[in-house]
Amino acid sequence: MAGIIVHEWLAKRGGSENVVEEIVATFPDAQLQSLWNDAPQRFTDLDVAETWLARTPLRKSKALALPFMPATWRHLGAADADWILCSSHLFSHHARFAGPARAAPKLVYAHTPARYIWTPELDARGNNVLAKAARMPLQRLDRGRAQEAQAVAANSEFVRQRIQNCWNRDSVVIHPPVDVQAFADDPSGQLTEADRAVLDGLPATFVLGASRFIPYKRLDLVISVGVAADVPVVLAGDGPSLPELQALADQHPGRVSFVIKPSRALLSALYRRALAYVFPAIEDFGIMPVEAMATGTPVIARDVGGAAESVVDGVTGVHLDDFTGQAAREAVTIAAGLRPEDCIARAWQFDKSVFHSSLRNWVESEVPA
Question: N or C terminus: fewer CB in 10 A for the chain?
Fold first, then answer.
């Protein structure tokens, strides 16, 4: 079966792009269509089709390009395919081709319905004046075009419920792929001298927060957990919230250490050294909690969102609503007593090999041979 894989845009890094790489690995003979491709080195074996937006300055600003996206997806030109698989977190599920591909069944792998259209409380981009004015028309358009899909897959039960609420569509759950082996392997042989120096400078015991330093990741609550449990905190990553996090850390002298832009090997070593990985964000799925479990480290996660599905409360981590005070202290105590082998076994249930087989079986079940 010859297919077309559709994705919003291709960036050098990003969670949805990581999923697309594994979709392409599952269907290596498929074509790949995006609005524009800013990561040709990630898809070197493919001729990625781009739209007219790729030839304009609009590709440098998603916000400015947004008004043109719905119409652009409807005029993708002639193509031939037995199926179309849209990897969507905005409008790519609106995709429509001319030629034989017009009649091909369209499947949608939904990372989420567009959050700043449907759930602006989870995405600040949906709170500006223009976004608010366009919300209702875009919701009507988006819901209508979601009905064109023959079938929809969600990346978590959390997103499946959102799809039902937003699009009035049911969906199956296919969790996104995690490279479990990369974190299950001992990283010590891949650490540089600089990495080792960083590790040597950290406390012997700590709780870890690792992600982009942006507000909705709520890394301030990682500090709250450490303070409540009287355990040092390590924050790994980088981003615009770094100054605010440093200012907060200054209120607790000597308790918080920062590791800026860790390599994957260093991140793996940090997971292994941590007493627990703390993940306060409400995410659609959340790859990093699975990475932490792959190293044998338990996760203290929010009790809603995708991490509440991957982290088994009382077995591979603790679900929390309150990341302060006694609840946080008890969570750290419980996490410290959990078995690393249970964490590792749970992580393998989300390995990319599971994703490949689940995705292929789903597509083959929906597309006539």
Answer: C
Domain 180-348: assigned CATH number: 3.40.50.2000
Q: What angle do CA 41, 85, 61 make, to 5 degrees?
A: 50
pTM score = 0.90
Give the separation between CA 243 and CA 247, rounded to whole angstroms. 6
Give rounded-to-5 percent helix, strand, coil for the chain. 50, 15, 35
**H/E segment holding residue 197:** helix 193-200
Looking at the chain, which residues constitute the CATH 3.40.50.2000 domain(s)?
A: 3-177+352-366, 180-348
**CATH code for 3-177+352-366?**
3.40.50.2000
